[in-house]
Design goal:
Blueprint (H helix, E strand, L loop, with lengths): L10 E5 L3 H14 L9 E6 L1 H10 L7 E5 L15 H7 L1 E5 L2 E7 L4 E6 L2 E6 L5 E7 L2 E9 L1 E5 L7 H4 L11 E7 L10 E4 L4 E5 L7 E5 L2 E3 L2 E8 L5 E5 L5 H8 L4
């Protein structure tokens, strides 16, 4: 493995488990050198959006800037894969700051767990019956009884993912908003969700947890049989993504609103 030059940032290459991504990492390490993620100035993620989310979660303590190159399917959070000129691309890259959500969940046994979510916190029914959930915002009950398959709170970065599939709104990164979106709401039928300020505290209460169990998920962390779930912005965590100027995240989110 080559040793980085003093003029070159220390790069850590992480990759998906696919043969293509592993081979790409080996070639890039040979060309640019490589260090462990904890010692890196920049982490280069090779894969798809799933790997990027995984890398962001693993990097929450160090908060090293991450530059993704797409070797996956959609690659919404990734740049174009190209092996040459990487150092120059990194110097010219635009920084995008992401603030995740913090989920605090209490299950039927009274156990508490916390998890962070970069895309969304979602609640989903765990049985054949619809869930019954009440929704409070900043301590005030706004929806006393929602019959649904579930509900979610999505960040701007996650608003084009699961949230959009559930017919939620796309949020520009700088909007300072969160999307509260129902999943197949049965009653009230006409409720389509709400836009909330980013510092809002959202509390979901499962009204019939024994008969109608619900699981809560923060990105990939799932907690079964929840009774209450509180979602707030994790304002103490700030993550940095790097994008080529022509492929920055804000432009991609805007473009999603005009694609047929």
């Amino acid at each position: 493995m080559a040793t980085p030059s003093p003029t070159v940032p220390r790069l850590a290459f992480v990759c998906a488990a696919t043969p293509m991504a592993r081979a790409a990492r080996a070639r890039l390490q040979k060309r640019y050198g490589g260090v462990a993620p904890a010692q890196a100035d920049i982490v280069v993620a090779l894969g798809g959006d799933g790997l990027m989310l995984q890398t962001l979660h693993r990097n929450m303590r160090h908060r090293t800037p991450i530059f993704g190159m797409n070797l996956g399917t959609v690659g919404f959070l990734m740049n174009t894969y190209r092996e040459t000129g990487l150092v120059n691309r990194l110097k010219k890259a635009r920084q995008v700051s992401l603030t995740p959500l913090r989920m605090h969940a209490v299950d039927r046994r009274g156990r508490s767990r916390e998890a962070a979510a970069i895309n969304e916190v979602s609640l989903l029914r765990s049985s054949r019956q619809t869930a019954r959930i009440s929704v409070s915002i900043d301590g005030k009950k706004r929806l006393p009884d929602l019959y649904c398959d579930g509900a979610m709170v999505a960040t701007p970065a996650g608003s084009t993912a699961y949230n959009l599939s559930a017919h939620g709104p796309i949020l520009p990164l700088g909007a300072g908003l969160l999307a509260l979106t129902p999943i197949n709401a049965f009653r009230p039928r006409r409720w389509r969700g709400a836009l909330l300020p980013r510092d809002a505290s959202v509390e979901f209460t499962v009204l019939d947890p024994r008969k109608r169990p619900v699981a809560a998920t923060a990105d990939s962390v799932e907690i079964p049989d929840v009774v209450t779930v509180t979602v707030t912005e994790a304002s103490d965590i700030n993550l940095t993504l790097l994008f080529d100027p022509e492929h920055d995240l804000e432009e991609r989110i805007l473009k999603e609103q005009f694609d047929p």
